[in-house]
Amino acid sequence: MSESFPRLSARTRRFTLGVPRSFTISPDGGRVIFLRTKSGTDPVTCLWELDTETHVERLVVDPRALSADEEDLPPEERARRERSREAAGGVVAYATDSSMTRACFALSGGLHVVDLPSGQTQRLDTPGAVIDPRISPDGRHVAYVTGGALRVHDLVTGQDRALAVPESETVTYGLAEFIAAEEMDRMRGHWWAPSSDALLVERADEAPVRTWHIADPANPDRPATAQRYPAAGTPNAVTELYVLGLDGSRVAVPYDEEYLTTAAWDSHALSIVTLTRDQKTMRLSTVDPATGASTLVREDTDPAWVDIVTGVPAHLDDGSLVWVANSDGGHRLFVGDRAVTPPTLQVRAVLDVDHDSVLFSASGDPTEVHLWTWDGHSLLPVSTRSGVFSGRMSGGVGVLTEQSLDAEGVSTTVVRRDGMAVPIPSFAERPGLDLRVSLGRSGRRELATAVVLPSWHEQGSGRLPVLMDPYGGPHAQRVLNRRGAFLESQWFAEQGFAVIVADGRGTPGRGVDFERAVLNDLASPALEDQIDALQGVAEQYPDDLDLTRVAIRGWSFGGFLAALAVLRRPDVFHAAVAGAPVTDWRLYDTCYTERYLGHPDEQPDVYENSSLFADAAKLERPLLLIHGLADDNVVAAHTLRLSSALLAAGRQHSVLPLSGVTHMTPQEVVAENLLLLQVDFLKRSLGVQRVEQP
């Protein structure tokens, strides 16, 4: 008997194992190194190399050959992986020198350096477990963090010394603080100078941040884990920057803003990007590394918030600044002071700058993400088929990844300078589902919507119970032209549901005004748009949807939206599964929450309207709350406090606590049974007796 979809999905980490990722192209375009597990069920990630001339692929680092397939990770590395949503093990991150001759990586807390041409790997002695090692551009030194100290290992002499040591237990050097990693997509806290003789280093002090305690009630003999969590309206970590020279020099780089969003150090400039606490002003400055003095290059402001875009700042060979900013209602690519993309093309990220060319991703249709280049004169499309694309570019060679509804999995291709395409195979497992997904627009706002029907359902043959399956929150999407986005939705459909996935206001890809419609209200627009999409789809499928049996499920913001739906609109929604829901936005972090709702002391009514406790007495529909008790992102207090409010109001509900489980639910048995339990709950709640499958 073949393995069930829930078990296979759990074992394959939602079919991500075996997929090539994290590409680096050598400056001459002759080699590509990347990460991939050996199979679609193998969780141990290896480092590989492809010769673009011979098309020969080579295994460079196998953690099992280094006797490190069973990992013993330091707490800081576990936290970093949770922030980056890393589900695999092994070599999950690496860094190379500028010539791509050497690479360094952390493995089971140890520091390793590999000579890429020979594949010879060496483990270096360190005084403690290693976090985020990065090799210098000249390949001679490796900087890394251990015990909160930033250290440098000289690969020629073998000398290992500290450049900065924490002054207290709340201080770290060289690591991104919680907010940067969780909400700004900045996973690093130190940057090498191009000359390899100094580093820009973040010092973070969490002393002002309030301490929360994450307990494990299933194991009362274990002490609770203390965690510094910057909840909305409370102090953040204090961050500072220093230029630390290998000669022992230390130069402060002062800035006044609350957040350091990113930094970059190339041959043209040492640049830092900072953001005010209210996130309405972003400043890009260049820094003199000798004095620490900053010069303002540009200042972007917005009455709502300024978006953080990955990949910038960057520079062309002539020093022209590459930047992304809002202009005329769109997210636009700027080269120098000139916008080079139209406002109708929503730029999502800058992926690479190769001499005078910029590779970036952008959307015209929000369900598609395409690759484009700016070559100094004109915009050129790189991807031409429908789908979701990403890529890298260096030395005139490109790496393209492609996903679509027409093909399973992720397709990866290296495009050489002569135009020849060289595939990098994926070892991912096949889900074994017959997808029946229709993308379109629905409702008064023409929301991007996917309708997922059972593969066995004959349209017009009967009305199916409906399952809304959104995320629904800002800066994230569910409705994209790729099969991987709908695997779980299709599986739910096979159980006898018509599944609807809709992206409402706040989601990206449709322009600035659409995204900013959630300012000061994370509840009303999100809920209204799910109802709008439901009604729109019902008009398109009048004989296939049973609107007397409508359920909704979601995780994180989607969990908040699911609970919100049955509390505020029981006339529309008849059951809900709310996984790891944010129930009170005062309990969520500063950067995300204040971006949309402002400061809770200044706008308490806004927080009340977007939270769930005041609605507890309204519950009249079945509600299943699920939460990992080890979740350090959306802490379990969200679910427990809502449950207490529901109990106080005498409202029946169910709570499924997950002992030892974080926000990611990576455990195989947990991930599998969560799907099965949700289906069982939804069927019972909606009175679905059996799958109406022939």
Automatic annotation (TrEMBL):
Q: Where is the Dipeptidylpeptidase IV N-terminal domain?
A: 107-373
Per UniProt, the ranges with Basic and acidic residues bias are 75-86
Q: A Pfam family for this UniProt protein?
A: Peptidase_S9
Region of interest: Disordered: 66-87
What superkingdom does the record give?
Bacteria
* Residue ranges annotated for the Peptidase S9 prolyl oligopeptidase catalytic domain, each copy included: 488-687
Its name, as the record gives it, is Prolyl oligopeptidase family serine peptidase
Natural source organism? Nonomuraea marmarensis
